[in-house]
Amino acid sequence: PALFLLACAVVLILVLTGIGWVLSHLVQSDAIGRGDAGISRWFARERTGELNDVTAVTSEVGGTITVTILAVLAVAAAALVWRRWREPMLVAVAVAGEVAIFLVITLLVDRQRPPVKHLDEAPPTSSFPSGHTAATVALWGALAVLASERARSALVRGIVLALAFGLPLLVASSRLYRGMHFFTDVLGGALLGGLWLVATV
Predict the structure, then answer these.
(1) Distance (Å, rounded) from C-alpha 101 to C-alpha 86?
(2) pLDDT-derived band at 32, boundaries 50, 70, 90
(3) pLDDT of 152
(4) How far, in whole angstroms, is CA 63 from its chain's centroid?
(5) Are 195 and 12 in contact (CB under 8 A)?
(6) Based on the number of CB atoms within 10 Å of its own CB, is 89 exposed (0-12), middle (13-18) or buried (19 or more)?
(7) CA–CA separation, 168 and 135 (whole Å)
(8) pLDDT for the residue 27
């Protein structure tokens, strides 16, 4: 399993780094690049004081501190409930692996942030891919897998599944609204989180 995951991680790094490099260097001035920037400018024009406040909170659903705390709690709860390593390791590997892959990609790509006012302080990592989006997909996707396989309540399964689909959309749109990522960045983040989750499962 470890060698398989390592191979998957290397493939993801190579593929997403290639995509990020193309977005950063080859398509900035063509239709894709102009469309990307246009979406960012549209979100910036739609800003209001209330939405600024709301997205400051919803953006942090995928923030490092939030995801780390939830992942640690989920790992601990899974270990206590099922008393074996497979369930907690699913969450741990999904989240930790996504973070490691994300950091390597951002070092290799180094894409600039969108050409709009940023409502948050820009971290030193590349704009591509969106780490908030990737982390949200990986964490809540892993929890949805556990819920679908282990939860006895259909209500619980439904709620966790809805969160696994809804929260990444909420985080991605919040990051776009706040000028922290291009549309292709959040797509790249969703691709990273989703493919790594599949490999982990």
Answers:
(1) 21
(2) confident
(3) 85
(4) 9
(5) yes
(6) middle
(7) 9
(8) 75
